[in-house]
Structures are given as C-alpha cells and as structure tokens.
Amino acid sequence: MGLDRAIRFPTGQTPTWEAVRTHLRQVGEEAPLRMIDGLPAFPDEAPDDVWKELRVGMTAGMVTVRRGVDSLTCIVWGNSETDLKTAWDKLCWACAAAGGGVVDTPGGPLPADAFARSAGISPS
Questions:
Q1: Residue 112 pLDDT class (50, 70, 90 cuts)
Q2: Average pLDDT, whole number, for the chain?
Q3: Phi and psi for 90 in degrees, rounded to 5?
Q4: Which fold has domain 2-116?
Q5: SS3 118
Q6: Which residues contact 13 (CB under 8 A, 6 or more apart)?
Q7: How do residues 82-103 score in pLDDT, each as one tens digit?
Q8: Closest Cα partner for 16 from 95, 124, 102, 108?
Q9: Chain centroid to CA 83: how far?
C-alpha cells in the first residue's frame, strides 16, 4: 500500500519537470528519472510535455509522481523508512515551489514555504 500526497495548482497548470528538478537541487537531490510513463529513462532524460507518470530516483529510494489536470501526486510505499519519507517531503515541496502550488496535508493545504517549515526542509 502506498502513501500519496497531492499538490494542487490554483492556476490549473502543473510545473515542468525541469522546474521541479531545479528546486530539488536546492535541497540536495539530483533526482534522475528512472521511468517515464512506464518506460525506462536515461538519468539525464527529460519527459515530453504530456507525461503522466515519472519514477524519480531520490537519494533514499524511488518516488512516483503522477500528473493530473491541475495537480501532481507524489507516492511512496507505506512501509518506507524515514529517509525515503524525507525525500518524499522534498519532492512534494519542490513540486509546490516550482508551480505555486499547495500541498494537501492531514492538517489542511499548505503553500510551499509553510510545508517546508512543517517538514523541516531548508532550501538553499
């Protein structure tokens, strides 16, 4: 069973993968892609503009990102260790920061800066 967290974009547009990746670098993650829409990807490959699912190689393991019409959903295994859950938080933050989105949390939606504070993320 997986844990998922949605990031919603009030503008109706999701950010590009390159914008998300730029934000990930601010928190120490290179995040090479492992799969794009179910097909293997080269680590430096960028998805086309109509991608639906990415498998992202984070330092602690793999995180899946699914794109909806006006949202991105980040998913990890429910039994993930602390380091992978931290990587998941970083990816959620990067998605929100890259596109002016809000992260759905159990306590309600949070903009990127508030989510970073709540998750202990310190972008450089």
A1: very high
A2: 95
A3: -60, -45
A4: Cell Division Protein Zipa; Chain: A, (3.30.1400)
A5: helix
A6: 70, 99
A7: 999 999 999 999 999 999 999 9
A8: 95
A9: 15
Residue 21: how many CB atoms within 10 A of its CB? Answer: 19
Say which amino acid occupies 43: P
Map residue 51 onto helix, strand or coil: coil
- Alpha-carbon span 90 to 27, nearest angstrom: 7
Kindly report the pTM of this predicted structure: 0.95
- Cβ atoms of 10 and 96 within 8 Å: the answer is no
Report domain extents, the chain. Answer: 2-116
Quote the crossing angle between the two packed helices 17-25 and 82-99, to the nearest 10°. Answer: 120
Query: CB 37: neighbour CB atoms within 10 A?
Result: 14
> Is the pLDDT confidence value at 124 over 90?
no
